[in-house]
Amino acid sequence: EEAGLDPAALPATWDDVRSMCEAVEALGNPLITGWGYNASSSTLNTTFYPFLYQAGGRPISEDGKTATFNSEAGVEALTFIVDLFKKGWSPQEYLQPIDEGQDPFTQGSQALSNHIFAAGVVALRQNVPDMRYAINPVLKHDEQWGFGGMRSWAVSESSQNKEAAAALVEFLARPENAKRHGEAFGTFPALAAAREGIFANDEELAGIASHLEHTFGEQKHKYGRDLMALVVPQIQAAIIGEKEPKQALDEAAVAVNDLFAKG
Length: 263
Description:
Blueprint: H1 14-25, H2 48-54, H3 72-86, H4 118-127, E1 146-147, H5 162-173, H6 175-185, H7 192-195, H8 203-207, E2 215-216, H9 228-239, H10 245-260
Parallel strand pairs: 1-2
C-alpha cells in the first residue's frame, strides 16, 4: 500500500514482480526491498526450480541421463534471479543463512516472499499475529508452477513391530484422519477424499488448494538430491557476479552429468 500497490492484485507474473520491485524501490527506503530469493539455501526445490519450470525448463531429461537445467529456459530463469540482486531488489541478508523467523519478510522489510507455503501461513499466524499479509497466486512466466513437497508415513525395514506399525499407518492414512492431520498442520492430504471440505472454516488456506494443480514435486531420480550440492554453489557464484548465468549453469551441468555417469 505504501508503494501505491493494490494488496488485492498481487504479482502473478515475472513482469508483475519486476513492476512491484520498482514501485517498492521508488519509496527510497534502503531498508525495504521487494523480493526475496534465499540464495543461501541448500535446496533447489523452493529456490531455482520454480523459476526454471516457469520458464518452461526442467532439471533433468526424461530418460534421466542428462542435466537440462542449463537450457535456454534455465539461463533465463537464473538471469531473472541474478537481476533481483543486481538491482538491489532482493535483501542481501539472503546471501547468508537466516534463522527461522528472522527472514526479512517476517521482519517486515520485504514486500513479497516465495518461501512461505500453507504450513508456513499457519506458523506466520502464530509467530507474527499482528502482521498484515495476503497470499499471491503461483507465479507464471511461460508456464505456471510452484514446488510442493510430499510427506508420507512409512514403516522402517528394520522395524521389530511391522504389523503394529502398519496398523498405525493405515489408521493415519484414513481420509478422516488424514484430513484432521492436514488441518492441524496446514498441509493437503494426497488422498482426494481427504481433501474434500478441508479447511472449510479457513477460507485463506482453502484457497491455496487451487495451487495444487500447478505444483511439481521432488525429482524422481537417484541423484535428485545429490546434484543440488553441485548446482547451488554455481548459482551463488552467478548471483554475486563471479560468473555469468550461462557459464554457471553449464559448469554445473558438466559436474551433474559426471555424477549421472556413475550409474
